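Record 1 of the preview.
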Amino acid sequence: MRSARLVVPSIFFGTFVAMPAVAQAPPPSAPSELAATLEAYSSFRLQEAGRHLKDRTLSIGHLTVTVNDGTVTPIRARDSSAAGLWITGNGAWTYKAEVASERAVLETNKSRIAPTLPTTADSARDTFRNMIVLFSEPLWADAWDPSQGADGPEESPPPGAAGASKTR
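->
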């Protein structure tokens, strides 16, 4: 019984000794990279002009986008960075699943979401007249950014797209 009486005062004494005399709030943390990205991507606008592409192939990983004849126009985030591309005109895309697990996911998604999507044993493909590609780092800048070598003629987006924007 005597040892129990010593433990309780020791716990209270240790608690009071360890507490600072004045409680201070931690300094405010800097905005996280995620918070800054979410803020930058909280609204979008279509750039005033894009670039004409003809018979151009754009690839990343297992995805290939072919623009037969169309316009690629950057989508700008709130901070004016390129957040994506709006591709209009005649084109097609192909996604190639190279390993068995990707093929299984491709088949499952096709059956659940897009049962009429043309596929082969290892790929999905389709055509488009309008396509939106969103990215966290700019893709295919040599197709739309003159400073990166884009040499297609400058074009306005199709009628109705000028001034298009989306805000949360």
